TrEMBL record:
Residue segments, region Disordered: 49-70
Compositional bias segments (type: Basic residues): 57-69
Lineage: superkingdom: Eukaryota
Molecular-function GO terms, alphabetical: ubiquitin protein ligase activity
Protein's name according to its UniProt entry: E3 ubiquitin-protein ligase MYCBP2-like
Any GO BP: axon guidance
Organism: Hirondellea gigas
Cellular component terms (Gene Ontology): nucleus; plasma membrane
Length: 139
């Protein structure tokens, strides 16, 4: 129960993987979960493709239970970040993928930020109007 007496609903999911990473957009509308096997899951409301499902641009907002991010199938995700209507994920090969609103530098089909192909990204953070990526060299 929160301070204002609002009770948070509990989501029971059977046969659920071990979650090792959670990030939430600052607006509280969506989150990305990463399992210990590198699978990535989206939960919440996708308004602008932040769930990596670009098949339906500008859809009616509808909250979804955790679902696998289709564009990241087969990728072993090690880091993720969220902001308002954007999700960013890093795989173990050091590639950065971005989905949603702030994706001007990402491939519109795959989500890959190819301008960073020559560096190994270790982690990513998203702010209201910026993204910061840390390489394996600490830069």
């Amino acid at each position: 129960t929160s301070q204002k007496g609002v009770r948070w609903p509990e989501l029971n999911v059977s046969k659920w993987p071990n979650i090792v990473w959670v990030c939430v957009g600052h607006e509280g509308h969506h989150a990305v979960l990463i399992a210990d096997d590198g699978a990535s899951y989206f939960v919440g409301i996708a308004r602008r493709g932040e769930d990596a499902d670009t098949g339906k641009p500008r859809r009616q907002p509808k909250a979804v239970k955790p679902k696998r991010m289709s564009k990241m199938e087969g990728q072993h995700v090690v880091s993720a970040a969220c902001n308002h209507a954007t999700s960013a994920l890093v795989n173990k090969e050091g590639e950065l993928y971005m989905f949603g609103k702030d994706t001007a530098h990402a491939d519109q089909t795959s989500g890959l930020v190819s301008d960073l192909a020559d560096v190994h990204i270790q982690s990513v953070a998203l702010g209201k109007a910026h993204a910061v990526a840390v390489t394996n060299k600490g830069a």
